[in-house]
Amino acid sequence: MSEKFTRFFASRQGIVLAGAVIGVLAPLLQKAGNPKNMGICVACFERDIAGALGLHRAAVVQYIRPEIIAFVLGATIAALLFREFKPRAGSAPIVRFILGMFAMIGALAFLGCPWRALLRLAGGDLNAILGLAGFVAGVTIGVQFLKAGYNLGRSNKTYTTIGWIMPIIMIGLLLLRIFAPKFSEGGAIFFSEQGPGSLHAPLLISLGAGLVIGFLAQRTRFCTMGSIRDVVLMGDTHLISGVGALLVVAFLTNLILGQVHFGFFGQPVAHSSHLWNFLGMVLAGLAFALAGGCPGRQLFLSGEGDGDASVFVLGMITGAAFAHNFALAGTPDSVANGTVGGISPYGMAAVILGLVVCLIIGLTMRGK
Amino acid sequence: MTKKVDARGFSCPQPVIMTRRAIEEGQFPIEVLVETVTSRENVRRASEKLGCQVEVEEMGDEFKLTITK
User: Fold this and answer.
1) A236 and B49 in contact by Cβ < 8 A?
2) Engineered SS bond to A254: which of A259, A333, B1, B22, CB 3.0-4.6 Å?
């Protein structure tokens, strides 16, 4: 029975179903209160978590996003039910941490991970075309390294304890979200009172949607990076059919909900600085390709016991803290002032530094 | 002579890349060892796409895929 389900989820219908479910749930999460064109954004939501913990102090992006928690725990439940929970670790963790940091810095230059890039496009934000083009370019560069023998080395089976660390951290975050303790006056936990961080769906809706997506994505191995990589590397359209389903279904759902507004300037939580939308996502795409998974996939892997993916996630959260502490993240267009947003010179330098670091990692880490 | 590919511990896409390389060398059968169901399904799908037959044997918490053409 379990094997029959596994074969279904591994089939094209399975991956299309997963993409379609995400495509429905994300716009609904927006309708239920999440920020515009941000029903789900793994990068933004991890950034909000970093803010809630006080790892950065950008007051408008601080909230413990239950979707992230539920992505990990949904994957854990699926992995346990189907006996795929396999604690493993030890494949270049420090490199994964660095890749996670720079992936986040790139994603925040664009203001979104690949998931949000798709959702932005599905909401009519044409800047997402630049972001997605950069993402495809970044993954394509990563594929050239893969073809030349790049890999991060083997992981090893390890203690059960290690596999449980990320799910347990998520349970801890859930408790912090529910009880929202103030550890000191004027200190963490921070929840934004205005801006994107203050916009969120009710807790149980966020958790429920996240658990469904975490479960389905663990079963189907849904991955936005993998979708591009597999096409470029070997003409395999399996994963991209799921990503395509997400985009189409999210667009249709947005149409029904009246959430489509075409344009470049003044899109929600977005800027129309084309070059840096593109380059930010080149960096993110390359870093995800070198690390073997998009930010969503890294969460689902963390949930099924992958200690290396967990390190990548912690790297992303750290990268988000740096991005805001060092003013590297993108600033949205200002409709009130009519000014185009973008990233600071520090942000530009960080994106270029990230690209250089990724190229060095890709060039020098070749297996025998 | 069976060609052996030990892809245990590698995450996707490495097991698939290693298997494809072995298939391209054209010496069958090929025995591929993987650890996760994800790798098992990915290697199976990629091999079948290249016109090969795949038999899977579960060995404890690992899998042995025998690929023939």
Assistant:
1) yes
2) A259
List C-alpha distances in Å: B9 to A52, A89, A156, A302, A306: 35, 9, 6, 15, 11
Structure letter (DSSP) for residue B66: E
Say if residues A306 and B12 touch (Cβ distance below 8 Å): no
Q: Is B49 on the interface with A (CB under 8 A)?
A: yes
Which among B10, B20, B36 is the nearest to A151, CB-wise?
Answer: B10
Q: Is A332 helix (H, G, I), strand (E, B) or coil?
A: coil
Neighbours of A24 (CB within 10 A): 17
Q: Single out the residue of A167, A172, A164 nearest to residue A89, CA to CA.
A: A164
User: Phi and psi at residue A7, in whole multiples of 5°?
Assistant: -65, -35
Could you give the CA distance from residue A72 to residue A174 in angstroms, rounded to a whole number?
A: 12
Chain B residues touching A10 at Cβ < 8 A? 41, 45
pLDDT, mean of each 10-residue run, chain A (368 residues): 84 96 98 98 98 98 98 98 95 98 98 98 98 98 96 96 98 98 95 97 98 98 97 95 98 98 97 98 98 97 98 98 98 93 97 98 89
pTM over 0.90: yes
Which of A226, A332, A354 minimizes the C-alpha distance to A280? Answer: A354
* Residue A82 DSSP SS3: coil
- Interface membership of B41 toward A (CB under 8 Å): yes
